[in-house]
Amino acid sequence: MKTEKILLLGFALSNISALIYEVTWSRELTYVFGTSVHAISTVLTSFMTGLALGSYIFGKRADATPNPIKLFAKLEIGIGLYGLLTLGLLGLLSYPYFILYNTFHESFLFHYAQFWLAFLALIIPTTFIGATFPVMSKLYARELDDVGGKVGVVYSADTIGAAAGAFAAGFILIPFFGHNDTIILAAVINILVGAFIYNLPYEPAPKGGRRKRGRKSK
């Protein structure tokens, strides 16, 4: 199997785990917030913000790094390790919430503080998740005349993996294995993907940047 196909498979698996996290974290925060509306809104806000931050920060870094494969592998391992950390972190959020409730009761300030505590707990892994798309696009789309097609393939893998992860989390994993084991499974996927692809060979783009095939310089 070629390196790019292995990377694409790893990227699809990464997006499966990303949506497993999203669904599971939403369920976990429902117990903390006491309502699914606030929990889902907080997780979605964290994910959308993280996707934007990850694309912005690591999009530039992907162009500057000498080996984007290692960068992608490190992101995967980082996502997995932080995923394991959330097993205890999200549970700990209930303690400051009691203090906030005793201080502000059911006021706007209480819900506002709830949101920011959960948002800050999730912004790091969601930023790493957001970083995987530009890094993979850098790895997979290497020629100017095929950028649209290649990025389309990457986006397809992104979407298919996300759909599979959302379905698996909601209808199979959480009902049969529970929240904690589901998060552990997602984290294991990330860590194994990162460990497997870390030492894959990387061929740098030609000097002067990506070049369009089929054109000879005069």
Descriptive key words:
6 helices, mainly alpha, disordered C terminus, 218 residues, Growth Hormone, Chain: A, 83% helix, elongated
Would you write up a description of this structure?
- There is one protein chain.
- By secondary structure, this protein is mainly alpha-helical.
- It has a single domain, classed as Growth Hormone, Chain: A (Up-down Bundle), CATH 1.20.1250.
- 83% of the residues lie in helices and 0% in strands.
- It is built from 6 helices and no strands.
- α4 runs antiparallel to α5 (108-140).
- It is elongated, with a radius of gyration of 19 Å.
- The model is unreliable at 209-218 (pLDDT under 50).
Low-confidence stretches: 209-218
Q: Could you state the order of secondary-structure elements as H and E?
A: HHHHHH
Helix percent reads over 70%
Give the mean pLDDT: 86
Radius of gyration: 19 Å
Largest sheet, if any? none
CATH architecture: Up-down Bundle
CATH class: Mainly Alpha
Number of domains: 1
- Structural class, by secondary structure, is mainly alpha
Strand content: under 5%
- Total number of beta strands: 0
What general form does the structure show? Answer: elongated
CATH level-3 fold name? Growth Hormone, Chain: A
The end-to-end distance, rounded to whole angstroms, is: 37 Å
How many alpha or pi helices?
A: 6
